Amino acid sequence: MSDVTLQQVREALERIRERIQPTPVLRSDRLDQITGARLFFKCENLQKTGSFKARGALNTVFSLSEDQASRGVATHSSGNHGAALAWAAGMRGIPATAVMPSNANPVKVAAVKGYGGTVIFCEPNHKAREETAARFISETGAHMVHPYNDVRIVAGQGTVALEFLREMPDLDAIVTPVGGGGLLAGTAIVAKGLKPAIKVYAGEPEGAADASQSFNSGVRTPVSNPRSIADGLLAFVGDITFPEIMEHVDAIATVSEDEIERAMKLLFEELRVPVEPSGAVSFAAVAGGKLDVKDRNVGIIISGGNIDLESNPWARPPAK
Amino acid sequence: MSDVTLQQVREALERIRERIQPTPVLRSDRLDQITGARLFFKCENLQKTGSFKARGALNTVFSLSEDQASRGVATHSSGNHGAALAWAAGMRGIPATAVMPSNANPVKVAAVKGYGGTVIFCEPNHKAREETAARFISETGAHMVHPYNDVRIVAGQGTVALEFLREMPDLDAIVTPVGGGGLLAGTAIVAKGLKPAIKVYAGEPEGAADASQSFNSGVRTPVSNPRSIADGLLAFVGDITFPEIMEHVDAIATVSEDEIERAMKLLFEELRVPVEPSGAVSFAAVAGGKLDVKDRNVGIIISGGNIDLESNPWARPPAK
Question: Which domains does chain A have, with CATH numbers?
Answer without folding.
Answer: 6-52+150-307 (3.40.50.1100), 54-144 (3.40.50.1100)
